Amino acid sequence: MSVPEVLHDGRDVLPGVRDCLEQLQQRSIPMAIVSNSPCESPKAALRLERLGLLQKDLFRDVVTSGDQAKRYLEKLISEAAPVRLRCLFISHIDHTERGTWSPEELRSMGLELVASVDECDFVLANGVQVCYKGTLSEITSNYESDASDCAVFKTVLQAAAKAQRPLIIANPDCIVHRKNGVTVNCPGQFAKQYSASGGEHLYVFGKPGPEIFREASRTLELSGARRICHVGDSLCHDVSGAAGAGFASVLVRSGIHAPELQGMSVSELCRRKGTPYPTFAMSSFRW
Known about the structure:
Helices cover about 35% and strands about 15% of the residues. It is α/β, with parallel strands linked by helices and about 290 residues long. It folds into two domains: about 15-65 and about 210-280, Rossmann fold, CATH 3.40.50; about 85-205, Rossmann fold (3-Layer(aba) Sandwich). Strands 3, 4, 5, 6, 7, 8 and 11 form a seven-stranded mixed β-sheet that branches. InterPro entries: HAD-like_sf, HAD-SF_hydro_IIA, HAD-SF_hydro_IIA_hyp3, HAD_sf. It holds the Pfam family Hydrolase_like.
């Protein structure tokens, strides 16, 4: 299952969620988290623990897009050795609070952080607040809350596309809704801009790619699961991703598509977006 807007709103567990999870557990239904979080799974699990969502061993596994991106980076670094790869890093201001990689962690992996597309071997994005993170040329942006504050990222993405520098995205979400209706822009927006500028070397990890679903399903199958259903709020990431992996899906209508679904049915929205239909739909994740 997905996490934001299904289990919590970014700060608090949503009403009915704990009871629903416990009801499923009492019926011996194994569960796993499949998340587009750029955090690696131990840090993502810690964030869930702070919300009280890892008590009673509710989940058999936590799999994140950050895990997938980390493995890909390690592969690139290993293949390039002894040459030290140069990375232009776009991230969060507070990597500790967000649970994402610090510049020191990337350097310890074997990367050099640089402040221009001409110098870099690839661009890595796991946040949208700081460009050239880890260098003396850091530039902060309000793009997370203000889509118009995108000049520095637009310049980098266009230059990277023109030079055909790879773009690696550890969080494929485009937007996320936070508490009180706040909309947050995410690195998935960069994928669109890079591709629109002619970039051909795009590596996006997480949902809707099938591998993240299959990775979680392997753990569930070891627990005896034979029929797997993914619960999420995004037609593009959750429903399409589950369908691509061969799984059933439940769309939570109160999530990212809530404003659109006030004026149309789920089936009509699927037709407009060109996505598969979910197997089931529910107003919110509750028993």
